[in-house]
Amino acid sequence: MRQYMIRRLLQIIPTLIGISIIVFAISAMVPGDYITAQNNPNMSKEKAAQLRQIYGLDKPVVERYFVWAGNMLKGNLGDSLSHKQPVTKVMNNYVWNSFIIAFCTLVLSWLIAVFAGVFSAKFQYSLFDKIVTLLIFICMSLPSFFIGLLLIKLFALEFKMFPVGGMTTAGINAHGWAHIVDVAKHMFLPTLVLTMLSTGSLTRYFRTSMLEVIRQDYIRTARAKGLKERTVIFKHALRNALLPAITLLGFELPALFGGAIILERVFVWPGIGQVYLESINMRDYPFMLGFTIFIAVLTLLGNLLSDVLYGVADPRIRLK
Amino acid sequence: MRKRMSLLLVMMLLSFSVLAACGGSKTAEPATTGETVTEPAKPADETTPQPEPAKEATPAGSEGLYEAADMSLNPAPAANRKDTLIVGMTSPKGVFNPLYGETTYDKYVFDVIFDYFLQVKGDGTYENSLADSIDVSPDGLKYTFHLKPGVKYTDGSPVTVKDYAFALKVLHDASYDGPIDILSFKVKGGQDYHDGKAKDISGIKIIDDNTIEIEVTEPTAYTRDTLGTVPFIPEAYYGKGYKQGDLEYIKALHDKPLGSGPYILKSFTPGQEADLEANPNYFKGAPKIKNLIYKATTDETKLAMLQSGEIDMDHVTVNQDNVDELQGMGFLDVNIFPTNGYGYVAFNFKEKKFQDQKVRQALVYGLNRKEIVEGVYGKFADVINIPQSKVSWAYTNEGIEPYDFNMDTAKKLLDDAGWKVGADGIREKDGEKFKINFSATADNPVVDALLPIMTKNYKELGIDIAAETLDFNAIMDKKDKGDFDMFFAAWGLTPDPDSTVYITKGAQNDVGYSNKTVDEWSDKGKKELNFDKRKEDYKALYQELNKDLPAIFMYQRRDMWAINGRVNGLEITPYKDFIYSLYTAELE
Amino acid sequence: MSLASAPLNTNVEVPKQKPDSPWRIAYRRFTRNRLALIGLFVLIMMFLICFIGPLFSPYNLYDYNLADKNQSPNARYWLGTDKFGRDILLRMMLAGRISLLVGVVATTIAVVIGATLGALSGFYKKSVDTITMRITDIIMALPTLPILIILGAVLSDLKVDPSHRIYFLMLIIGLLQWPYLSRLIRGQILTLREQEFMQATEALGLSDHRKIFRHLLPNTIPIIIVWATLSVAGAIITESALSFLGLGVVQPTPSWGNMISAANSLIDFRKRPWIWIPPGICILITVVAINLIGDALRDALDPKMKK
């Protein structure tokens, strides 16, 4: 196992080099640059040329790649062109806001999905199962911002229970406990929507895996032995139904830090998703590249994590 | 997978936000999420009298200030906020330095922190702010600025013209990467300083702490105003580490600005809010509103936040739905005014078919612009026939052809130009089929109506049209490569009518348009110092542009601010943002 | 717990009384499932209505009538009109052609590639696994949006007819989505290949091809089906976002996705439900139908279900 881990970690290096080359090539091929993206009507050709020179955009692509990659190795991702600050600082400003929502959503949606999935499977084709299934499909068929807007209408405008958006109440400057309560209040609606959305697909996966496992002979055997139903389901069946969940868990790692753009817009949550999208639209290369690589590393680690967990869930799986 | 898709979905959402994001200085509407702050605007000539708004009939309810109907409906959070104004806007980037800030939202913050010799007035002309008086030599080459005495920065240090000279120096520095194109100001010796050939800028003469003389090599009608809108930044604070050719240290101060303006930045939380406090020693008098908060909002929810009282004012996209909704809330003042910009369809003048004036005229007659504009904006936009705002002093409708939709005229013009309908119903000339590849930036609501209507109209004209929607930068790229037939975009306007969009080889004339008459009138207008004569020059220019049609001029739409009725005394016009009257505003 | 011998009686190879092929059994099971038939019927009807329906409409794609904009459903416009006065019913049917095609084709591409590669890498492990999984790593790490922007610009430069770009779009959605399925399948195969029934196939000396496609992959069908239903809906919605980059359909051509996103504010949401409810319901019906078929397909193919 340890050997496998080490080899996989070593494999990350060439993979990352490959990714960095492709990503950089993509950024070079995307039409336009930071100067054209601003579309400043007073930008003369001379001024544009000056700026390109300052930003190093006038150099050949290969040279630019090595400058960028070299700096990255030293931990320097450069300065964001539109924020005029180091990329790492900008990321740090926003990424944790995204993280707390994504983390709460992750915990909630997995908890709910396990139970909903298991009961849906156990009572397949029951009313409960049908309602859950229909709800999931409705959530999938409507754009998420509708659900967000609807909740705002209900909870923020009609019942006035929660604020419409933002992360804190403007100008209160609360500290300590008061601050936490304030943030929690603002977090409630976006977390609720995100949970509703991600629980759906997870539930489907759990339900399916459980259906598979429940029919197997050893479950019948376990029941025949007179084990309690709860033990049978949650201890014996669930564990074997976990494999697809582990793969999905691996996918969640980059998602934890990636931000949820639509929800950030609907609830004015100061997350990283919007900042990243804007950097793409504005051709803010340093930020766009830096964040892409950051997410790439998390993707690789997430997949590695799930490969390792396979072995834990099912000891017969031996990856070498 | 979920995440991937949501990233894409946002592309759709963005399309709704862009319009609302178009603040006054937005340059081209279909642009990106960020916005450009234009340089210190090119203002009108100093002798400019009050502008004469065009006396054209505007549909009732489509323009002007509509006061709140019933303040008793004001939600408690807003009504109870006695000394704090919360302005909703897209979150700024945190570049609170007037030399560097690029977005309108950063500008909203730094322009209440810093001061200038001049300040814009509601009609787009300028009045003295920090300047006591300004002397201009008769040849327009020397500008002497006299600073008001006794003004202090918020740290107590005195404001002197040295700080102004320092700002000019920073702008001329070779490592300066902000948005201002200082070399176009033509300050004498500026180029040498930029190139590192001189230690000082020879055209800047500091006479005493309150007097400075600037010499330029090329006078224009607006040099005085461009020079007057260079900010004062305290040299003692920003200049501590200044060495020619190295401005890195200034960037560290972006989120800790120090100026002499009406407000002081207390704190900034990226993506959330910027908190400001009134400057009690402001030289025009302490602001009446003690706290000013800029809170991040997005298009999706700004209406809800106005309704819940979480914000006091915000810029909202103008359409019938939004206007009805805002007025329906009862406690909001709604201020609707013409956007300082226009939408257009560009031709590629490298292609022979578009070089023919008759063809261009036919393409305008044969396009139902009225339906397009009405379909999207209802009564909140006008079809235009010259590239100028109807509230500008340079606007004219004398001798302007309105190009009302007329299929027959269009067909006749194409016939006259030699484009005859071929056997397959497509027009052709010298064996070439009339085919148009049309590109449009998709993040503009006009495109929704433009594509179906244009496709239908031009097919009827006998033109083979293929329409596509593309990323904004991809279109700009096609434009730079000259690889397009026609595309849709929009221009922002500056208060001064001088522009390089339609002059031969002009900086922004990237479609290859060239017309000697246009060049002549533009040049005359740029250099003419007498206002009335200048006005005549632009009238002649617009008449020529209207006849020759360098582009299909489409529409000028409206902007709108919704403001809680308890806020009084804000002056907002197409040229003057609310920030410039904040220090006189009051809360009820 | 892992006495699991379940799939041992994997039938197929063990000759039974009747020379029924497993596919015939599956077919019979499938046709006996009433819900599945309803699902199939609905899906076929959707296709038929979308492809034939517009022929009976008094309106056509290029029609618009600003005088009739934003009308609620009435006798002239059965489902109302949009903000340019276009008939929603007609647009919904025309949109279905695009959306159904996008959803089904993109998903099929992803399933074929994803399932095959996932199965191969899970079965052979070692270098096959390493290479395939590193490819999935890379694709998953790539920034989608810039790639799509480039693709849109390239198609535009090559002057590909805008109405044909939808095919590239289906391809690209498929190509970007398969790694996720691939990893799911691989995970399943990794555990399935260690189970006892595989030792049986070993003992019988079956070929790798047979092991993978006859015995391993059918056991992952439940996961494939869940993934595919989610992906069809996802692709339909994604298409509308891609129109903006010169990849999807262009106005006036409708798709369910762009019809839904035409209603973009709380005001539309509240005041004009006829704009977004019909396309929303179409997506919902499609997804439910596919899911019913999928569930039945799984039951039909499941060797453990004996009747």
From TrEMBL, chain A:
A family per Pfam: BPD_transp_1_N
CDD domains tied to this protein: TM_PBP2
Coiled coil: none
Keyword set, alphabetical order: Cell membrane, Membrane, Transmembrane, Transmembrane helix, Transport
Signal peptide location: none
InterPro entries reported for this sequence: BPD_transp_1_N (IPR045621), MetI-like (IPR000515), MetI-like_sf (IPR035906)
Domain called ABC transmembrane type-1: residue spans: 95-306
Family, similarity comment: Belongs to the binding-protein-dependent transport system permease family.
Record-given protein name: Peptide/nickel transport system permease protein
Organism: Paenibacillus sediminis
TrEMBL record, chain B:
Keyword terms: Signal
InterPro entries assigned: Peptide/Ni-bd, SBP_5, SBP_5_dom
Signal peptide: 1-20
Chain spans, region Disordered: 27-62
Pfam families, A to Z: SBP_bac_5 (PF00496)
Domain Solute-binding protein family, residue spans: 126-506
PROSITE patterns (UniProt xref): PROKAR_LIPOPROTEIN
Protein name: Peptide/nickel transport system substrate-binding protein
TrEMBL record, chain C:
Gene3D superfamilies the record matches: MetI-like (1.10.3720.10)
Name the record gives this protein: Peptide/nickel transport system permease protein
Keywords linked to the UniProt accession: Cell membrane, Membrane, Transmembrane, Transmembrane helix, Transport
Transmembrane domains' residue ranges: 35-56, 98-123, 135-154, 166-185, 216-237, 274-297
SUPFAM superfamilies: MetI-like
Signal peptide positions on this chain: none
Location of this chain's protein in the cell: Cell membrane
Pfam families: BPD_transp_1 (PF00528), OppC_N (PF12911)
Record has Acyltransferase as a keyword: no
Protein's UniProt keywords contain Membrane: yes
